[in-house]
Design goal:
This protein is about 25% helix and about 20% strand. It has about 80 residues and is α+β, with helices and mostly antiparallel strands. A four-stranded mixed beta sheet has the order 1-2-3-4. It is globular. The relative contact order is 0.24.
């Protein structure tokens, strides 16, 4: 079986939305994983979330990303 592998870019739940957007832009990535201190994924924030949860409702970009992330993520352990 073959898996496509890519690097993930995590951030802490308390990270301000502004910093997440800046990092996504700098890295030219379409999503950011929000992870607990132990690395367990808590949620994901995508470019679609930028439109639906930040731009259109004019959300404060100083707010923590945890309030805007999609939660209930499922992670696969490939080890």
């Amino acid at each position: 079986m073959s898996w496509i592998s890519c690097r993930t870019w995590p951030c802490a739940p308390e990270t301000p939305v502004r910093e997440v957007l800046k990092r996504m832009h700098e890295l030219r990535i379409g999503s950011m994983i929000i992870a607990a201190a132990d690395g367990v994924p808590l949620g994901i924030f995508t470019t679609l979330d930028v439109l639906e949860r930040v731009a259109l409702p004019q959300t404060d970009v100083g707010a923590p990303i945890s309030g805007l992330m999609s939660s209930n993520v499922v992670a696969l352990d490939l080890s």
